[in-house]
Amino acid sequence: MTETARRPLPGPNVSPWRRTIRYWLSRGVVAVLTRAYLRVHRDEGAPLPDGPAIYCFNHMSWADPFVVMALLPYRPRLWFFGPKEEDMGVGGRNRVMTWTGTAIPYKPGKNDLLEATRRVGAVIASGGVVAIAGEGRIHDRESEILPLSEGAAYFAMRSGVPLVPIAIRGTSWLRFGGRVSVRVGEAIALEGRPTREALADATDRLTAALTAMVADAPDVEPPGRVGRWLTERFNDWPEGSREAARAAGVARSPSAD
């Protein structure tokens, strides 16, 4: 058995059967709650790989991981890379994520890269899949993909597994009964060492795939008061608000020059 395979999985230090119960319970609860509020469905697309893989999805809302959990198969077991936290024992959200055992946390400042890589490797070695929000932050343009980090490609190449683009459409606003879809793109096979050139090429291929999958996505009209509150209640805008993020995006746009 390899060192990676012997390495304990991320999450709470409980027995394997308790982990399994928590996983199935959390997936079931999330599926019920998500489907009770949103009309979620999986579009026709490519099949998911049968075994371990790295999934990379676009990110417009705090609800995106829940949509993924509600729509993707329960097997292989699904994990999420994140959140970026110094201490997962602080805060109700972090404690819940730790309890479910579906999170692979990493510390800010990228000083935790080696340990995070080992955690991802342990999940892959166990037969699981890891989902990553490649943009690293939320935004509100349905037809836009922000620059992707090279993390998804790096983990896929280090682990020798496919890189799968997953496009989420419809979560920029969370209206009751709003239509949300998920489409799986063709898996990207990666070979060789994760050199700078190889990672850049793989990330470009991933970006092109996700961009094509959301290119015709219409913007979602803002909902009523409840929908607005629910959407923004847990959104984490780096600029402090949706309006500030939108203004910063316009300022960065080439058309603004």
Can you lay out the helices and strands and say which pair or pack?
Blueprint: H1 3-6, H2 16-37, E1 39-42, E2 54-57, H3 64-71, E3 78-84, H4 92-100, E4 103-106, H5 113-125, E5 129-133, H6 151-159, E6 163-169, E7 179-184, H7 196-214, H8 225-233, H9 242-252
Parallel strand pairs: 1-7, 2-5, 2-6, 3-4, 3-5
Antiparallel strand pairs: 6-7
Helix pairs in contact: 2-3, 6-7
Task: Note poorly predicted spans.
Answer: 1-5
CATH class: Alpha Beta
Using the alpha-carbon principal axes, give the shape. Answer: globular
How far is it from the N-terminal to the C-terminal residue, by CA?
57 Å
Mean pLDDT: 87
For the record, the count of structural domains works out to 1
Order of helices and strands: HHEEHEHEHEHEEHHH
- Largest sheet report: 7 strands, mixed
Question: What's the count of strands?
Answer: 7
Percent strand = 5-15%
Overview of the molecule:
- The chain is of the alpha/beta class and 257 residues long.
- It has one domain (3-256): Glycerol-3-phosphate (1)-acyltransferase (3-Layer(aba) Sandwich), CATH 3.40.1130.
- The chain has 9 helices and 7 strands; from the N terminus they run H-H-E-E-H-E-H-E-H-E-H-E-E-H-H-H.
- It has a 7-stranded mixed beta sheet, sandwiched between helices.
- Strand 3 (78-84), helix 4 and strand 4 form a beta-alpha-beta unit.
- Helix 2 crosses helix 3 (64-71).
- Residues 1-5 have low confidence and may be disordered.
